[in-house]
Design goal:
single chain, about 150 residues, mainly alpha, Arc Repressor Mutant, subunit A, 2 domains, three-stranded antiparallel sheet, about 10% strand
Length: about 150
């Protein structure tokens, strides 16, 4: 059991270290990693609802609502009623949101400079990717299995 915890803890610590570094790079731009991620998804997807955003961010719906409201306050996104389901709210990126993403290019270059995978060879990266995919699939299987 301790070996499993040790491996998962190290994966978690590595992720948090990388995430904190990237968030620090965004502080001068007054945007969070989660906000930036949502804006990037909205460029591709055009419209998302709060439940979809919560799922993308691995958070609950109230937390996603706070993130969306903060982004709306900055005028990076706008809310509108869904035309087919009036109870549903759609979230779309605004021109200000697109401009904000464009202004982040320099900050996001730091992501390339601080590459946690740069210590691996291409073969090691492929192996790590394969192993992480295998673990993800296993976790999905466990999550979706009836108890």
């Amino acid at each position: 059991m301790s070996d499993k915890l040790s491996i998962m803890s190290r994966i978690g610590v590595n992720f948090l270290t990388w995430q904190r570094y990237l968030q620090k790079q965004l502080v001068p731009h007054q945007i969070t990693l989660k906000q930036q991620y949502v804006l990037r998804k909205l460029v591709v997807k055009t419209v998302l609802n709060p439940s979809q955003i919560a799922e993308l961010l691995y958070c609950d719906r109230p937390t996603a609502t706070v993130i969306i409201n903060n982004m709306e306050r900055q005028r990076w996104v706008r809310k509108s009623k869904d035309s087919t389901n009036r109870k549903m709210v759609n979230i779309a990126i605004t021109e200000e949101g697109r401009d904000k993403l464009a202004s982040l290019n320099q900050a996001l270059q730091a992501e390339e400079e601080f590459d946690p995978l740069s210590c691996f060879t291409e073969e090691e990266k492929r192996q790590l990717s394969t192993l992480l995919n295998k673990m993800s699939n296993h976790l999905q299987h466990i999550k979706n299995s009836p108890e």
